[in-house]
Design brief:
The protein folds into 2 domains: about 5-50, no CATH class; about 50-180, Alpha-Beta Complex (Nucleoside Triphosphate Pyrophosphohydrolase), CATH 3.90.79. About 20% of the residues lie in helices and about 45% in strands. The chain has 3 helices and 10 strands; from the N terminus they run βββββββαβββαα. A hairpin with a 2-residue loop joins strand 4 and strand 5 (about 60-70). The longest helix has 13 residues, at about 90-105. The model has no long low-confidence stretch (mean pLDDT about 95).
């Protein structure tokens, strides 16, 4: 009998796949996958565009956050500007577009903070997080389904909001913790 640890790195094989649902933001499919030990299982997968977020620093001590009601969470949340990359759009261009649309700023400099998988078990979404600096105001043009409150916060307050789970959005949490480490806080 094979030790299960020996199979930990073995790839699963997709035997069949069928589409279940699709809209302009996501696709859902159901796969039958063969496990490393030869058994099979049903696996639901959500596919979407790459996600991009930008932590906009107004100055070395001040962050711009956007607040909005989030339907799935059923709550108002403060977060960094985020969105999905359009086909053929670079991640940097997506970051600038989302920063303009949601917060009403453009960044002179974008620095990549990290790349991470938002939900490794059911979703294939990969996220690029940037630090935006050298901000200049531009007219905000949110999407038709977006309604934002835009506010400047001291970075130390945003860090506290992350540490106390007042901010729960994963892209914002990851961005703030990376920035705090970068800034030595």
């Amino acid at each position: 009998m094979t030790d299960r640890r020996d199979l930990a790195r073995a790839a699963w094989r997709t035997l069949t796949t069928r589409p279940v649902y699709e809209n302009r933001w996501i696709r859902v499919r159901e796969d039958v996958a063969e496990l490393p030990d030869g058994r099979t299982t049903i696996y639901g997968v959500v596919t979407c565009a790459d996600a991009v977020g930008v932590l906009p620093m107004l100055d070395s001590e001040t962050v711009i956050l956007v607040g909005q009601y989030r339907y799935v969470a059923r709550a108002f949340m403060w977060e960094i500007p985020t969105g999905g990359a359009s086909k053929g759009e670079s991640h940097e261009a997506t970051a600038q577009r989302e920063l303009r649309e949601e917060a009403g700023y453009e960044a002179e400099r974008l620095t990549e903070l990290c790349i991470y998988d938002t939900s490794k078990s059911i979703m294939d979404e990969r996220c690029w997080i940037y630090l935006g600096e050298g901000l200049r105001p531009v007219p905000a043009r949110p999407d038709e389904t977006e309604f934002f409150e835009i506010r400047a916060f001291p970075f130390v307050e945003v860090l506290r909001m992350v540490e106390t789970s007042e901010i729960k959005d994963s892209m914002t949490v990851v961005a703030v913790l990376h920035a705090a480490r970068r800034f030595g806080r």
